[in-house]
Specification:
The complex is a heterodimer. By secondary structure, chain A is mainly α. Chain A contains five helices and no strands. Chain A has helices at 13-38, 43-59, 64-80, 94-121, 127-153. In chain A, α1 (13-38) crosses α4, α1 crosses α5 (127-153) and α2 (43-59) runs antiparallel to α5. The radius of gyration of chain A is 17 Å and the shape is elongated. Chain B is of the alpha+beta class. Chain B has a two-stranded antiparallel sheet with strand order 1-2. Chain B is elongated. The termini of chain B are far apart. The chains are: A mainly alpha, B alpha+beta. At the A-B interface, α2, α3 and α4 of A face β1, α4 and α5 of B.
């Protein structure tokens, strides 16, 4: 149980845990959107990523294995096509790009696990709420992805 | 998330798994009147026989269980590694065709899993090697692959 402040009211502990997960999810998806745009990802990769997010949110932990396969595929494609973002300086040693890819791979895997575990928890909610919460998660993920992409196009954080 | 999740309506404590049950657990389920009619030595003997009949699973060095959900159907994957205590071969009452089907499916699944894991592992090793600044071949590996 997350408890940052000792006199924090008990009835707010659970929502705080959810809120932190949602913030992490939003940041993670924004980062994915930012990097997909920076690497000029082709539209099938965008569609695939959106489908994987829906797949993870609708199923939960059972979708983690295949979703991780998608993350591995994305990293492999970046490596195979030897793609670097336009802002990446050519005189930088390749090892920094390898470190960056490893970090992105880690973020992708973490995001898959976080979304899978959080979506799995929704199965214990009553069905009508479950559907709304899943739709909400899809909306949040897609919105964060779009905001990340927009942030790159507007030249923010780059 | 304003709503609280619905908790299970069952107030009984969760049942232990089959492998965790002891002879005493089964004796506790006996009809109370019958149980009271049994003498001490009889209960001890029943307990001894139950204990002999209950499976004693070998402790697992590796116990990996996960499921893969393909939307239309779900599969579970279990990988267990432990000391083999079985003295007699396991009785298998399956037809030769089923056995062949199982073998083909198992080989296909193992190969797919192997290829996928190997690719991910190689990718990781390559990235870690590059991150450490180690160059084994002249030029850029992936550019050379694409050029060929």
């Amino acid at each position: 149980m997350l408890r940052l402040i000792t006199d924090f009211p008990d009835h707010l502990v659970l929502p705080l845990k959810y809120a932190l997960s949602l913030i992490l999810l939003s940041l993670g998806w924004s980062l994915v959107g930012w990097w997909l745009t920076a690497l000029a990802a082709a539209w099938p990769l965008w569609v695939g990523t959106l489908l994987v997010s829906v797949y993870l949110i609708s199923i939960g932990t059972g979708a983690i294995a295949l979703a991780n396969g998608w993350v591995v595929l994305l990293v492999t494609l970046v490596l195979y096509e030897d793609r670097v973002p336009p802002f990446w300086r050519n005189d930088l040693p390749y090892k920094y790009w390898a470190i960056m890819l490893l970090l992105l791979w880690g973020v992708g895997t973490g995001l898959v696990f976080l979304l899978g575990i959080q979506s799995q928890g929704l199965w214990q909610w009553p069905r009508p709420y479950q559907r709304r919460l899943r739709l909400g998660l899809v909306g949040l993920s897609w919105l964060s992805l779009s905001l990340g992409s927009l942030a790159y196009q507007l030249g923010l954080l780059g | 998330m304003p709503m609280k999740p619905v908790l299970s309506q069952d107030s009984n404590p969760p049942m232990r798994s089959y492998s965790q049950l002891t002879a005493a657990d089964y004796i506790d389920q006996m009809e109370p009147l019958i149980r009271e009619s049994l003498t001490g030595p009889q209960l001890v003997e029943i307990g001894r026989l139950l204990d002999k009949a209950l499976p004693k699973p070998s402790p697992k060095i590796v116990d990996l269980r996960f499921s893969i959900n393909l939307v239309l159907t779900r599969y579970f994957i279990v990988l267990l590694v432990g000391q083999d205590r079985r003295k007699q071969p396991r009785a298998r009452n399956v037809s030769p065709l089923t056995r062949l089907g199982n073998l083909v499916a198992a080989v296909f699944l193992l190969l797919s899993l192997n290829v996928t894991l190997s690719l991910a592992l190689l990718l990781g090793v390559y990235l870690v090697k590059s991150a450490l600044g180690i160059n084994l071949l002249p030029g850029h590996f992936w550019s050379n692959i694409r050029a060929n």
